[in-house]
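Q: How would the structure tokens look for this protein?
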Amino acid sequence: MWYATPDAPAPEGATLSDPGPQLTIGLRPANPSNSVAVQYRVDGRGAQNLDALLVSNDYQRDTQHFRARFPTFYAGEAVEYLPIATCAGRRVPGPREALMFPSSFKLNPKPPTRPRPEVSKQIEFPARLEHLVYVRASLAPEPEIIGLTPTGFVVNWPPIGGRLEGPAFQATVIPGGEHETTVRVDGVGVLAVRVSVRTDDNALISFRYTGTVEYGENAIARLRAKDFPRTLPVRTEIRMLTADPRYQWLNRLQCIGVGEVLPAIAFYHYDVYAIC
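A: Here is the predicted structure in token form.
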């Protein structure tokens, strides 16, 4: 992938008068599955995305060109950006580099040519999810039913193993850790989890998260009888911590998890996404 070249012009390191400049990206080899998006942020605010459209196929040189037009910016605003190419599940750059914005340009500091929209009519900080890893965890054969406590009905169900696989890393779940659920009277369980994983290249990463588990109606009575629903939807807020220099970029991420527990087979699986 390349840009800011004669055949793929880009607003690189310049001060521009055009409030909505264009960006052209070249890709090789050409492939019908190739696609390009541009991640950008304005004045250091939250990241946003726009799609680049295919504008040419050069079959003799095995190249493609994609073009994106930025939205109209205000005078004086500074824009940082990064093109991201994907093809059949592969991507350039990888998740770690996607947190950086190596290219930038600035709009001339002249009075704006259009009024700013009302805040109530726009999304100031749109979010994008970046898939990091898919987790499969085997739980203990039986949960520990602590029972009704002053803070709620407590259930512990620690993992005894599992695998994590995805574009960010591959790892194995280390058995044990803390995996506590406090079930409220409305049937919502509140998670408190700390578990460690070891990557295939021998880095230790700590997962720490909270979130909710939907147990449904009459949850406490059913838990006392060990009568679990067929599935338990789980939504979590995840932070990862590591001292390994190869994965310290994970320490900066705010992540979410979306998945479910299957009580009948003591199995928990979910996808982890970084909020970009």
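Residues 15-126 form a domain with the Immunoglobulin-like fold (CATH 2.60.40.10).

The longest strand covers residues 188-199.

Upvote if useful.
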